[in-house]
Amino acid sequence: MSTLKPRASALALVFAIFFAGIGTGLAMAAQSRMVNARTYLRDALNELEAAQENKGGHRANAINFVRQAIDEVNLGIQYANGS
Fold first, then answer.
1. In the chain, where are the structural domains located?
2. What string of DSSP letters covers the chain?
């Protein structure tokens, strides 16, 4: 009977880890639109950074706005996930 307690504890731990993983997956699935938006914003940022600088300061402004947007999306994801 002494081996039963460690086995039960190990089994409980496995279930806890498994269900925590499912919960994390569901939280990310619920944020799929936000995650997609962040990906698109990162792609846009890469394109803006690769563009020529002769845009009268508008390229630089756009880069800053996209970086801010990425930060806001990250904060929204964290908020929705309870972090």
1. 1-30, 32-83
2. -TTHHHHHHHHHHHHHHHHHHHHHHHHHHHTHHHHHHHHHHHHHHHHHHHS-S-STTHHHHHHHHHHHHHHHHHHHHHHHTT-
Taking only Cα atoms into account, the Rg of the chain, rounded to an integer number of angstroms, comes to 22
pLDDT of the chain along its 83 residues, tens only? 455 566 666 556 555 565 555 555 555 567 899 999 999 999 999 999 999 999 999 999 999 999 999 999 999 999 999 87
Query: DSSP string of 20-39?
Result: HHHHHHHHHHHTHHHHHHHH
What pTM value is reported for the model?
0.65
Hey, what are 81's tokens?
A: 């996930």
CA distances (Å), origin 71, targets 23, 29, 52, 55: 24, 20, 24, 24
